Amino acid sequence: MKKMSILIGIFTVFLLNCFVLSAYSKKQNVYNLNGTSWELIQVSRKGKNIVIPKGTKITINFSENEINGFSGINNYSGDYMIKNNSTLSADVATTLMAGSENLMNIEQNFLDILQSFPKISYSANTLTLSNNKKEVWTFKVLTLDKKLQNTSWKLLNMDGKDISKLISKNENNITLSFNENGINGNSGINNYFGDYEIVNNNIKVGPLGSTKMAGPENLMKVEREFLELLENSKKVKLSDQKTLVLTTDKGKSLTFEKIYQ
């Protein structure tokens, strides 16, 4: 009898541990979706692939309780929850741009499924949304390099110094833009350009070139420091899709906020 009680106790503890680990795993899976970005690669209905209009770009970004992205023509943003680790609940608003009929149709279809409490499943590389109409939207994960392409950023802080205290409101913002061919921007006085490469969270910048305009000495000093830190940046971090931080080997950093166009 005593042995039986011990066995029952051990079995009960085992079941409780399994329950806790399962709940923890589910919580971790949901948390791991935060900070990720995805791009549409396929749409199917009742097992048959639907033709996606050429040039379509539909993306989803998850950040804490916020969801945003590009829906084909417009930018969208809003709140989201994942219920029971399987159902997406999203409520979004969009900009009001118009486009071709094909793009407007797929955009509306995407926004419909996004806000229809679809089933959601995801792995490290793939995310799917599906509904009771047997419609499945499949997305691939976007690497940091892909996330940054065709984005622009405004410098907020340089090596711990608030940039608004270093340059006046009447002077140019210091900016950084990424595209497929390289980076470019305004460094305070001059326009600059150059190459970059991102692998995981590592970045290599340069060599950089720029125009050769002169300006006030204090602004030229800020410009020189910015370009030096930019070219010596080794690490890159994107936070909440809105903040970009570049860091050198010596721990000096450049902090940018996203420019929404």
Automatic annotation (TrEMBL):
Q: Which residues cross the membrane?
A: none
Q: Which residues form the DUF306 domain?
A: 32-140, 146-256
Task: Please give the coiled-coil regions recorded for this protein.
Answer: none
Pfam family name, one: META
Entries under InterPro entries matching the protein: DUF306_Meta_HslJ, HslJ-like_sf, Hsp_HslJ-like
PANTHER family on file = HEAT SHOCK PROTEIN HSLJ
* Protein's recorded name: DUF306 domain-containing protein
Please tell me the species this chain comes from: Leptotrichia shahii
